[in-house]
Design a protein that fits this description.
This protein has about 350 residues and is α+β, with helices and mostly antiparallel strands. The protein has two domains: about 140 residues, Activator of Hsp90 ATPase Aha1, N-terminal domain (Bactericidal permeability-increasing protein, domain 1, Super Roll), CATH 3.15.10.20; about 140 residues, Alpha-D-Glucose-1,6-Bisphosphate, Chain A, domain 4. Helix content is about 25%, strand content about 35%. Helix 1 crosses helix 2 and helix 3 crosses helix 4. The longest helix is centred in the middle third of the chain and has 34 residues. Belongs to the AHA1 family. InterPro entries: Aha1 (IPR036338), AHSA1-like_N (IPR015310), ASHA1/2-like_C (IPR013538), START-like_dom_sf (IPR023393). This is Activator of 90 kDa heat shock protein ATPase homolog 1-like Protein.
Length: about 350
């Protein structure tokens, strides 16, 4: 195997006159928030809702709260977005006596949810016989329009922020020729660990054990450390929104709250110690997880010792480390594990 910077082209830093982060090999991020707000406003301004029963149109965005970003790791583009939207509409029944107004609310537009799964709520300002009828027509007719326009937003987000995120090597391909890889982040991870009935019983002494895992990764020690402590990178491999304060005593929540804990010790590029638990474990019970990160000449070796694991959960916990951490990190960041 080649040593760092020797032989393996994936580790060679090629010269570029315009940047040191060659080909955006390291994690890079662009803020797509302000652009997204303007794009969403544009997509819903004066857009008609077609129906034979009424004349209805969206007028403007009432609320657009959230964030969006485009990220690149080793040539793989990853997009994050989360928006809470409220859109104003006006309408009148074909033979109605007056015009009505209302709002359409979409609280859950994110990469976690497919556009077809969006929760779309419709309200009308004046609730009377005509207003309520118009609201029902709007509820049935607007969903396809909303989904169509938001699909346009997602497509244009990826198109706009793919530009320049993957840079060409010297004398090679232009940015426009680089394929935009899909992150697949709309595929939800449902992490539901198996919990034995004995561990649910309150007042019994809990039988615990220790898990010892060693993994090898094709990355720098600092890169592996960052993957567990930088919120954007943790979000990338867990495919879900993360709560994290990567400081001594700082809390974290992963996988929709199924894993919670806090950091006890942080040594950049060397060591991480966490108090860590499945939410379904007996209340108040935490295990201690120690990551020892050791950079070798051609790879990084990580030894994980987890003490205080309920004995009945040891096997499934070890499997979940492999499935939800190691395999996901390899897919998200291209670390790749050696087979030994």
């Amino acid at each position: 195997m080649a040593k760092w910077g020797e032989g393996d082209p994936r580790w060679i830093v090629e010269e570029r006159p315009d940047a040191t982060n060659v080909n955006n090999w390291h994690w890079t991020e662009k803020n797509a928030g302000p652009w997204s707000v303007e794009r969403i406003k544009e997509l819903f301004k004066g857009v008609p809702v077609k129906t034979d029963l009424a004349d209805i149109q969206f007028t403007e965005i009432d609320k657009c709260e959230g964030e969006a970003s485009a990220n690149n790791r080793k040539g793989k583009l990853i997009f994050f977005y989360e928006w809470d939207l409220s859109i104003k509409w006006t309408g009148k029944l074909k033979n109605g006596s007056k015009s009505y107004s209302g709002k359409v609310k979409i609280p859950n537009l994110s990469e976690e949810n497919d556009v077809s799964e969006l929760d779309i709520k419709v309200s009308v300002k004046d609730s009377d016989e005509e207003g309520d009828k118009l609201k029902e027509i709007m509820l049935k007719s607007c969903k396809d329009v909303v989904r169509h326009q938001l699909t346009k937003y997602i497509s244009s987000l990826k198109e706009e922020f793919s530009k320049g995120m993957i840079l060409p090597k010297k004398d090679e391909v232009k940015p426009d020729a680089v394929k935009n890889l899909s992150s697949g982040f709309n595929k939800k991870i449902s992490m539901t660990p198996v919990v034995s009935e004995n561990n649910k019983q309150i007042g019994l002494k809990l039988d615990v054990t220790t898990i010892n895992i060693t993994q090898q990764f094709q990355c720098r020690a600092q890169e592996f450390y960052d993957a567990l402590t930088k919120i954007e990178m943790v979000t990338a491999f867990t495919r879900a929104h993360v709560k994290m304060d990567a400081s001594k005593g700082g809390k974290f929540e992963l996988f929709n709250g199924n894993i919670v804990g806090q950091f006890d010790e942080l040594v950049p590029g060397k060591k991480i110690v966490q108090q860590w638990r499945y939410k379904q474990w007996p209340e108040g019970h935490y295990s201690t997880v120690t990551f020892n990160i050791n950079e070798k000449s051609d790879h990084t070796e990580v030894n994980v010792v987890q003490s205080g694991v309920p004995t009945g959960e040891a096997e499934v916990t070890k499997e979940n480390w492999q499935r939800y951490y190691w395999d996901s990190m390899k897919r998200a960041f291209g670390f790749g594990a050696f087979i030994v």
